Amino acid sequence: MTDSKPANPASTSRRDILARGTLAAACAGGCAVALPFLGSLRGTRDAAFATPETVDVDLSSVHEGAQITVTWHGWPVFVQRRSPAMLASLKAPTLLSRLRDPNSKILQQPKDAENWHRSIIPEIGIYIGICTHLGCIPNFNMANGPDTARYLCPCHGSHFDIAGRAFLGAPAPYNLPVPPATLLANQKIRIGASAGDPHFDITAIQQV
């Protein structure tokens, strides 16, 4: 398919990313595909949230420097375990100066993830795997080492750091969304419920 912008950008919902995520679920494994904007899917957002859903993830299966992809409400969700080098890279001034929203001031995450690592615990990152430009699924790239790991969008070249923060000079205007999550016992985490921000509304995130 060929990715294209909607004919009337002014009419685009700020939450269209969530509708497009339903289609993106077909590539929850992280495949590099171009997913077009489909105005006809806007109504699927409300349908998706008609029933609450949580997904428990066993973090013991996520090795340091690696990522797995799970599905929540039909959307791919990246779950990564970051090494000390990866965490240190998130604070580098040379990186921060290249990011659109390095301090997560725009509503793209629950309050308990409004921090430098954009997560409830530093070593575990959880992000909805849908580019905030036009809804493609970014690829996790560690080709140049863990301290320069990136998410790269195969459609229009947007890229994000491992905290899901969007780089300047690329089409994506917002950071990757962070779903609500709660740390459980026995190395498990629950996606879909936030103990630190129980009233967080994922459908209120920003989007073009």
Please tell me the total number of domains: 2
* Structural class determined from secondary elements: alpha+beta
Shape: globular
CATH-wise, what's the superfamily of the largest domain?
Answer: Rieske [2Fe-2S] iron-sulphur domain
Measured by DSSP, the beta-strand proportion falls in 15-25%
Encode the helix/strand succession as letters: HHEEEHHEEEEEE
Characterization of this structure:
The protein has 208 residues and is an alpha+beta fold. It has a three-stranded antiparallel beta sheet, with no helix packed on it. The longest helix has 9 residues. It is globular. It starts with 15 loop residues before the first helix and ends in a 17-residue tail after the last strand. The N terminus is likely disordered.
Chart the SSEs and their pairings.
Blueprint: H1 16-24, H2 44-48, E1 55-58, E2 67-72, E3 75-81, H3 84-89, H4 93-96, E4 124-128, E5 139-141, E6 150-152, E7 159-160, E8 181-183, E9 188-191
Antiparallel strand pairs: 1-9, 2-3, 3-4, 5-6, 6-7, 8-9
Membrane topology: Single-pass membrane protein
Subunit structure: The main subunits of complex b-c1 are: cytochrome b, cytochrome c1 and the Rieske protein.
Keywords: 2Fe-2S, Cell membrane, Disulfide bond, Electron transport, Iron, Iron-sulfur, Membrane, Metal-binding, Translocase, Transmembrane, Transmembrane helix, Transport
